[in-house]
Amino acid sequence: MTTDLAANAPEVAAPPTIFNFAAHLLQVNAGRAQRAAFIDDTEQLSYGALEQRVRQCAAGLRALGVKREERVLLAMQDVTDWPVAFLGAIYAGAVPVAVNTLLTADDYAYMLEHSRAQAILTSGALLPAIKGALVKADHEVQKVIVSRPVAPLDFGELAFDAFLAAQAPLPHPAATHPDDPAFWLYSSGSTGRPKGAVHSHANPYWTVELYAKRVLGLAENDVCFSAAKLFFAYGLGNGLTFPMGVGATTILMAERPTPEATFKRMTGGVGGVKPTVFYGAPTGFAGMLANPHLPTREQVALRLVSSAGEALPRDLGERFTEHFGVKIVDGIGSTEMLHIFLSNKPDDVRYGTTGWPVPGYEVELRDHDGALVPDGELGDLYIKGPSAALMYWGNREKSRDTFRGSWTKSGDKYVRNPDGTYTYGGRSDDMLKVSGIYVSPFEVEATLVQHHAVLEAAVIGIQDADGLTKTKAFVVLKDGEKATEDELKAFVKDKLAPYKYPRQIAFVKELPKTATGKIQRFRLRAMETIGA
């Protein structure tokens, strides 16, 4: 099934021929010098001060000898220095490579070699891992610049504050083109080495104009808070490009997004400011609702809540709305498309679906042969839109497989419903064929978590003695709750077609996940293989 929204796409002017995205964001907020742009645990940074620091950072990178289109590794916690570093590099025409802060020295060494980064911008807490990477990597960098050092710098590193203070602001941004590389984001893929998706200066512009403004309706008086970190595509839009695109304020959090840490920000525990917009993921929402310290709706100031990263189960969304009185706007995006392209609407949320294509994007569902599938049938999701990455750096094979002309293959399976919404059917590589019929792991998982005792669930396929695929569920119970295997099997049988119930159930303390909170089913499959 194809959805052509070209005729209904909102009228948005394309970026001009000379376009630097960092300079664009600064210009958008030129009249908001005194307004708070970012607030973290120790500092409130105004838009005026942000512009000053961004231009100083750009000048500092130039002074280090970083040239246009050369990469700089950005491995930094979510504090006010992060947007300064990211936008400063882009302003200078360099290309920041934003990376996960939970990685190992081996991971960083690979990324240094792969990106050939000329400088590193990092946090004091991450410096040991970065130093380990520098020893391991077959690549030299010009300088390591450290935000908020936790110990004296004694190996030639520069403190970020001193790095900025030593420079006069760069007078003019690099004269980049909308299609020039602006930044990289590494995919969180389920297997193998991460892939470096190269995004242009125009890509975040389109996500702001088409999604943040026209779907979410973000405004200048909003205060945004994202559980997803800035180094993720989802978090980058939520916490930087979207709020800056409309002149809003962002609360940043360096620590892990535990329920307690999230509640602290939601209730105004940082800077006395309560977010009006919260961006989360289903795993996080489940943890919040199960926490005994869950705030009341009177303790928060939420007007809008967004979800992405994995499909939102209907029951979870309904319970959240019942408690807080706010609906969760569920959508799907990807590193390759930069942000959300299929979404519910704040004024029309259909729980159990991922909503409609974002205006300005087109969606098709195709079968294995590339033919369009009719409504009601499962198909592979393809997207056409202006925010698609240019390529995976240094990986032509994967680039060709994912970026197919003007279309991007998402790797997700969906069904189009009669009302034009789309329902998630799982990842293409996670779908299970049981007794000759496709079974979506997500559907079974979403049913299991409706049980009062279940916090999380993950479903994989295992081979029985006859070599046939059967389903096995790994279940995490809520604190203090109990449930038996037979009880949960009967619960699923009562709600789904009988062939879909999990033939085996294992109770575990936690599920393996990526840093974005996505369940790593391949690790569960590997555990089964080793066990066999």
Summarize the entry for a quick read.
This protein is of the alpha/beta class. The protein is about 30% helix and about 25% strand.
Number-wise, the strands total 28
Largest sheet: 9 strands, mixed
Distance between the termini: 41 Å
- Tell me the strand order in the biggest sheet: 3-2-12-11-13-14-15-16-17
Rg = 23 Å
Q: Which residues sit in consecutive blocks of at least 5 with pLDDT less than 50?
A: 1-8
The structure class reads alpha/beta
Helix content estimate? 25-40%
The pLDDT mean sits at 93
Beta content = 15-25%
Write down the overall geometry.
Answer: globular
With helices defined by DSSP (H or I, 4 residues minimum), what is the helix count?
A: 15
Keyphrases for this structure?
532 residues; alpha/beta; 9-stranded mixed β-sheet; 28 strands; disordered N terminus
Q: If you had to describe this structure to a student in words, what would you say it looks like?
A:
The chain is globular. Helix 2 packs across helix 3 (81-91), helix 4 (105-115) packs across helix 5 (127-136) and helix 7 (202-213) crosses helix 8 (233-246). 49% of the residues are buried. The protein has 532 residues and is of the alpha/beta class. The strands form five sheets. The protein has a nine-stranded mixed sheet with strand order 3-2-12-11-13-14-15-16-17.
